[in-house]
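User: Hey, quick favor. My workstation is busy. Could you predict this chain's structure for me?
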Amino acid sequence: MNESMKASSKTGSDINHIIAIVSGKGGVGKSSVTSLLACAMQRKGYQVGILDADITGSSITKTFGITAKATGEEGRIEPATSRTGIKIISTNMLLSEESDPVIWRGPLIANTVKLFYTDVDWQTLDYLFIDMPPGTGDVPLTVFQSLPVEGLIMVTSPQQLVSMVVEKAVNMAATMQIPILGLVENYSYFLCPDNQKRYAVFGESHLQEIGERHALPVLARLGIDEQLSLACDQGAIESYEGCDLSALCNTLEER
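Assistant: No problem, here it is.
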C-alpha cells in the first residue's frame, strides 16, 4: 500500500517504531507476550506504548492493573500510564465497567483501532506495540492498511494445527507487504518444580520446521509459568522477570 495513504497522528505524537504482535488463532497468550515484550523494552530504557487492538477481548489493562478511564479533549485522548511509565490505550478504558461486553459491528471496531493511533496523545515513543486480535479479519486489515506498521511478531503454540494458522497469517502479511520479524512459541513446555524436567504439555514443537519453511527466525520459546499467570491476574506484569526475551529485544534494536 502507498505510504502516503497511511494514517498520521493528529496529536503530533512522534513514534519511531510500530510493531504488531499477531497470532493466527486465539488462546496462544498473545496479550501476555505483548505485555512481557513491552516491559522488557521499557527496562532497557526505551519509551514504550501499547495499543490494545483486541477490541472485544481486551485484557491489557487487567494485566497492568490499570483501572483509570480514558480522558482528554475533543480530538485528543490521553493514554493511561503504567507504574513503570508504559503508555496504554484500550477499549476497557472507554467502558463503564471492564466486564461490559463490546457489541459493535466490524466498521466501528476497525475505526476505533484507527482512532487509538491517530487521536491518542502518545507524545514521544521509541516503540508502540499493537496487541492484535487473532486471525485475519477486519481489525488486522485496518491496522495493516492504515497504520505505519513496520513489522510483525507472530505468537504460536506447539499444537500441530499451528502450522496451518501460521501459514494463513504469513500469507496475509505477504499480501500486505509487512515483514514478519520472527516467531515466539508460547506454552512451549512446563518445567516441573519437583524434578526440573521439561514436559511438552501440548505436544512436541514443530516451530523450527515452520520457521525454516518460511525463512523466519524463532526468537523465543516461553514455558507455562504459574507465577506469570498470577502476575497477570494481580495486574503486576511489570514485576515479573521470569522469561528470556533477549533475542526478540535484540531483533527490534537491530532494525
